[in-house]
Design a protein that fits this description.
About 20% of the residues are buried. It contains nine helices and no strands. It is mainly α.
Amino acid sequence: MHRLVKKAKRGNKRALVKLINEERDAFYRLAFSYMKNEQDAMDALENMIVQVYQHIDQLRQEELFYSWSKTILVNECKRELKKSSREILVESFDTPPFKHMHSKNEIDHADQQMEIERLLSKISRPQADAIRLKYFHDLDLATIADIEHVPVGTVKSRISTGLKKLRSLEGGEKHG
């Protein structure tokens, strides 16, 4: 393995492919355990391979190649999951009573973002800040708690309560 890693570090793509193929099942199982579907797991694997190829020169100890590459894979999975959590927030605005915010053919993201910001301005600042940090800046709850100097439970509560208020505000404005 050490020879293959050294070759890969010198730019030998075949050596890198061989290293990855030796553990491809383990890589796939790891990605699938995070992503929960085959296509997303494969996408995360592809992104991991690109990252490993681009940064293999930063690997200091050849014997740590597999743990290093698995760390990259986990980080790719987490990044994709965070990205999809942002999409879930946007999708929540696509269900009644938020359906009218979009045209049926094409979503104008700039207008949608302005509408979301307008709604965020109507809830408490701590709730709006927590929602922005979580869904628009991809921060995890612990990081948000550190930034806001509050417990993680408070952050969860602010996000949950804020989202409920946003939904009721939008429903009230549409119907009221």
